[in-house]
Design brief:
With about 400 residues, the chain is an alpha/beta fold. It has 14 helices and 14 strands. α4 runs parallel beside α11 and α5 packs parallel to α6. The mean pLDDT is about 95. The structure holds pyridoxal-5'-phosphate (PLP). The site of pyridoxal-5'-phosphate has 13 residues, from α5.
Length: about 400
Amino acid sequence: MKLSQRILGIKPSATFAVDAKAKELLNQGKDVISFGAGEPDFISPPAAFEYAETAMKKGKTHYTPTPGIIELRQEICNYYQNRFDLKYTPDQVIVGCGAKPCIYEALAGIIDPGDEVIVLAPTWVSYIEQIQLLEGKVVVVETQNNDFIPALEDIEAAITDKTVAILLNSPSNPTGVMLPEDTIKGIGQIIIKNNLWLIWDEIYERLVYGQAKHVNAVQVVPELMSRTMIINGFSKAYAMTGWRIGYVIAPKELASKINALQSHLTSNPTSIAQWAAVGVLRHSNDDAIKMKDIFSQRRDLICGLLRDMPHITFPEPDGAFYVFVNVQQCIGKQYEGKVIEDDLSFCSILLEAELVAVVPGSAFLAPGYLRVSYASSTEVIEEGMKRLKRFLQKIV
Ligand SMILES: Cc1ncc(COP(=O)(O)O)c(C=O)c1O
């Protein structure tokens, strides 16, 4: 029987695939170490459990308003006011089942078939699939040769009369690199000049280390407010991946259209999880800071260990919890007689030989790289890096 072209064209998420493979090997009793998942290993903050439990006991287990309970949308507005000095109203906030579907809904709000969306490579896996599902065209601007910061002239050169939006993610998954304020300003001006939308995914905004400071694009260029959809969520900052709560903040008219779309898809995100999110916004700022501080120590640890390894280079990540490792020097060389043809074969030979799982850069439109997530304990990082070093030392 027939399957649609749409569904046949979808590639499964590479990050989930790597993690699933690692879990399968673990279930077979193998001592696998996975640096595949983009998922904090901490327990969600206590307030999430307290609020969820109270919500259950009070019978708050029914449909909620489509865009989310007013208490949560108001807390999100308060958060943006306090953190970025940006004024939004609850009718501009749509809470969804994670940031991922919110990005899809945001894209659906602006893409007609054939419309072009500019993304920066390396790019997060799901942007590409989502744009294509909507029959949009992905236009890629490469950043590899420029320390992963886009050159403004490359962005301008990518714009055509079909361009509807630029999608930016800072701090970045997969590189951990953050866009400098000047670059944000420059891109903001290009967006305004060409009458485009900005989709601003700042889901890692709380995970920023050392001297680096996250800035919101609308805070930097206030004129962007009427043409920006902000994407954020609870998965990364509050270790709440499984609760599936994220949100999009949009100009009112577009927000009401996204609301209509969501009313036909999920109706609303889970009521109890929404209350958990209210709980963390009210009470878990310190928990989020503690988790960030631990990520910061892990970043220093993993970068120190990686610096000591042959054949590789990487940009020092300022945010998120990934290191994007350049393994181009290994391509064409051999590991115990096996030729490393590309990043994909690097990953599969590494997994086979040392039981270490990492995600190939090709999944992020950056062949020749690996994404290593350091959302794991110190012991796991130390053991995994010991194995990776041993692997690299045997490459000839
Ligand atoms: C850049 C980026 N945006 C959005 C998401 C979606 O997060 P969630 O759907 O868990 O809220 C992720 C998750 O990996 C991500 O890395």
